[in-house]
């Protein structure tokens, strides 16, 4: 009964966060909540602990607990952690990326704007300029693919593809300048297809890029 009680309190607080009754950074007083829900402060502490685990509350030692709305980076990290715990194979990651990126291509072409393309071009140039620095290149490569998903202007798709992007094994990109050079040529074709609003060209460029990634699996 006690377990169900704190879960019910937590669910109600989540509902209040979702409907805006509790705003970001609002302080959660154990005393006030205990009186409001007519439960003990122990029940409230357990409810807040559960909300902390969900990322909807953050607690500062000595100050209290506050409402928190996870940003996209935090959501991607949580999703990625859950997938890692499940020991997802790289083959599955690449396959999911391929299906998702191809499915997103039409939406990207419909919604991409000049600023989106400018960001992609800047990332491409950064990768060209650090071709001899594998670690820096890999960081920019991850940002490029995240920027691609952001072109959908759909937060859920960005989070999903951002997670798969973070889970991708980029060991060969890190080690091989030849692989980095080839990958960036493929990035350029993606950008050119976007600028030309060429759906077939974009699908072809994404397909080539994904096939290249798939060919690296097992070679690390």
Polypeptide structure, described:
With 220 residues, this protein is mainly α. 74% of the residues lie in helices and 5% in strands. It contains 11 helices and 3 strands, in the order αβααββαααααααα. The protein has helices at residues 2-18, 30-37, 41-53, 72-85, 90-111, 114-129, 134-150, 155-167, 171-175, 177-196, 199-216, and strands at 27-28, 57-60, 64-67. It has a 3-stranded antiparallel β-sheet with strand order 1-3-2. A hairpin with a 3-residue loop joins β2 and β3 (64-67). It starts with a helix and ends with a helix. The model has no long low-confidence stretch (mean pLDDT 85).
Q: Which segments are poorly predicted (pLDDT under 50) over 5 or more consecutive residues?
A: none
Main sheet, how many strands, which sense, barrel?
Answer: 3 strands, antiparallel
Indicate the mean pLDDT: 85
Radius of gyration: 22 Å
Strand proportion, as a percent range, falls in under 5%
Q: What is the structural class? A: mainly alpha
Compute the number of helices. 11
Q: Can you write the helix and strand succession as a string?
A: HEHHEEHHHHHHHH
Helix content: over 70%
Say how many strands there are.
Answer: 3
User: Spatial order of the strands in the main sheet?
Assistant: 1-3-2
Q: What is the terminal-to-terminal distance?
A: 52 Å
Shape assignment: elongated
């Amino acid at each position: 009964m006690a377990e169900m009680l704190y879960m019910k309190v937590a669910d109600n607080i989540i509902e209040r966060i979702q409907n805006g009754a509790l705003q970001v950074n609002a302080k959660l007083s154990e005393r006030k909540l205990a009186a409001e829900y007519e439960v003990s402060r122990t029940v409230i502490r357990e409810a807040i602990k559960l909300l902390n685990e969900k990322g909807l509350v953050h607690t500062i030692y000595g100050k209290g607990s506050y409402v928190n709305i996870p940003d996209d980076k935090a959501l991607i990290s949580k999703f990625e952690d859950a997938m890692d715990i499940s020991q997802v194979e790289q083959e599955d990651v690449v396959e999911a990326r391929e299906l998702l990126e191809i499915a997103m291509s039409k939406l990207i072409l419909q919604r991409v704007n000049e600023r989106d393309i400018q960001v992609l071009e800047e990332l491409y140039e950064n990768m060209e300029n650090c071709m001899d620095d594998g670690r820096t290149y890999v960081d920019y490569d991850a940002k490029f693919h995240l920027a691609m998903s952001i072109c959908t202007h759909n937060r859920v798709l960005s989070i999903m593809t951002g997670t798969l992007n973070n889970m991708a094994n980029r060991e060969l990109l890190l080690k091989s300048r030849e692989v980095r050079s080839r990958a960036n040529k493929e990035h350029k074709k993606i950008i050119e297809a976007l600028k030309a609003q060429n759906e077939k060209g974009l699908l072809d460029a994404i397909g080539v890029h994904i096939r290249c990634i798939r060919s690296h699996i097992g070679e690390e």
